[in-house]
Design a protein that fits this description.
2 domains, 5 helices, single chain, Cytochrome Bc1 Complex, Chain D, domain 2, elongated, mainly alpha, binds heme C, two-stranded antiparallel sheet
Length: 118
């Protein structure tokens, strides 16, 4: 009896860990979380400085000309995340300006609306 209970708990813990890994790697249903995507869309025009200033992105209705048009680039979520953490060329790093959750929301949003994948 005691053993069966423990086995159930272990299975639950394993399922939880698997869900967490899937969420972190961006492969779960969470990648389409509407709240996160809405947050990403909002940040695109409200981050400091706003992505909109330099990037064209049809879904966000922006036409910045400094950086590559994201609809053409179709960056993966991983690529966006790296750019936001490290900066690229004249594009500033958002390491100090945004939280990791905000960077992730932007990464998921941009890759989703451009078809860039994970
Ligand atoms: C000051 C202008 C500027 C701002 C603001 C800016 N970018 Fe950029 N971004 C650039 C430029 C320029 C490049 C190309 C850099 C290069 O290739 O040397 C770039 C490149 C990128 C890339 C491609 C990265 C790669 O690996 O090639 C992504 C994705 C991106 N930006 C997303 C964003 C997002 C999302 C934001 C808002 C959080 C943002 N950018 C804000 C100018 C900007």
């Amino acid at each position: 009896m005691r053993y069966a209970g423990m086995a159930r708990r272990l299975r639950r813990a394993a399922a939880g860990a698997a869900a967490l890994v899937a969420a972190l790697s961006g492969t779960s249903a969470l990648a389409n979380d509407p709240v996160q995507l809405a947050q990403g869309k909002k940040l695109f025009t409200s981050a400091d400085p706003p992505c909109a200033l330099c990037h064209t992105l049809k879904d966000a209705g922006t036409n910045g000309q400094v950086g590559p048009p994201l609809d053409d680039l179709k960056p993966s979520a991983e690529m966006v995340l790296t750019a936001l953490r490290e900066g690229v060329g004249v594009m500033p790093s958002y390491r100090e300006k945004l939280s990791e959750a905000q960077r992730l929301a932007l990464a998921r949003y941009v890759s989703k609306v451009t078809g860039g994948g994970n």
